[in-house]
Write a structure and sequence with these properties.
Number of strands: 10
Radius of gyration: 17 Å
Strand order of the largest sheet: 6-5-4-7-8-10-9
CATH topology of one domain: Rossmann fold
CATH superfamily of one domain: Vaccinia Virus protein VP39
Shape: globular
Helix content: 40-55%
Strand content: 15-25%
């Protein structure tokens, strides 16, 4: 966040600078625009790899029956769908998103698949979680942190709601460590992805924002440091697909 020309605070929205108070509204508009085609676009733009990344993240969570899990920026519920059977009838998954359209779509999708009984649905801002301290054994957020206005504030609140022995997992786009692939990745991100968004979702601008928001998101080491600053311990990360995405982990003792 920086001070804008008018003296007010500003933040990034992709490559643009916008007033601090406007980012959440603009991000909400992006996801309301693409909600109905969100799942098919995820499959197309990642060639299905996002499903493997999410499964790996859930495996890293080491869930047990009876665990209470908060799934933030849950979207259409991919992680919740995988985690609910693992925590069982004695456990609970709280599926949460700041966007009502995405949360409603996710709830309907899970109910259509017969996944119910140990899931709650909560409309919530990751920076101001409406939960008591030390409420959850695990907190997950997949492809959502880069859209948060104040990432450090969100990480601190995630740490607040974790119990001793708890674990935060952040699955997010990151930085390629195979540098020779960067030109190809840039061509895909800034040219092919918006075109795909236009053809499939009728919205090139939202997928242009997606590509830009990935470039503005902290790299692996910077995010690990932010998690430590937020009070999490033994923070580390695992790169996947050459660093296209990374899973960061932080513990509470």
């Amino acid at each position: 966040m920086t001070r804008g020309d008018d003296g007010g605070e500003s933040t990034d929205f992709g490559f643009a600078r916008v007033p601090l108070r406007e980012k959440a509204r603009r991000v909400r508009g992006v996801f309301e625009s693409v909600a109905s085609r969100y799942d098919i676009m995820n499959d197309l733009m990642s060639a299905g790899l996002h499903r493997l990344w999410k499964r790996q993240t859930v495996a890293m969570a080491r869930l047990r029956p009876g665990h209470r899990v908060l799934d933030l920026a849950a979207g259409t519920g991919d992680l919740t769908r995988l985690m609910a059977p693992l925590v069982g009838d004695r456990g609970r998954v709280v599926m949460s998103d700041i966007n009502e359209a995405m949360l409603s779509l996710g709830r309907a999708r899970l109910l259509d698949q017969g996944i119910a009984g140990n899931i709650d649905y909560v409309l919530a801002d990751a920076e101001k979680l409406p939960f008591a301290d030390a409420r959850f054994d695990r907190v997950t957020i997949a492809f959502g942190l880069r859209n948060v206005t104040d990432k450090l504030a969100a990480l601190r609140d995630m740490r607040r709601v974790l119990r001793p022995g708890g674990l935060l997992l952040v699955l997010e786009f990151s930085r390629l460590y195979i540098r020779a692939l960067q030109p190809l990745y840039d061509t895909y991100s800034f040219h092919l992805l918006p075109r795909m968004g236009e053809l499939v979702a009728g919205d090139a601008d939202s997928y242009r924002y997606l590509a830009e928001s990935i470039r503005m998101h902290p790299d692996q080491e910077t995010l690990r440091t932010m998690m430590e600053e937020a009070g999490l311990e033994d923070c580390d990360y695992t790169n996947m697909s050459g660093g296209v995405v990374a899973v960061h982990r932080g513990h509470v003792y």
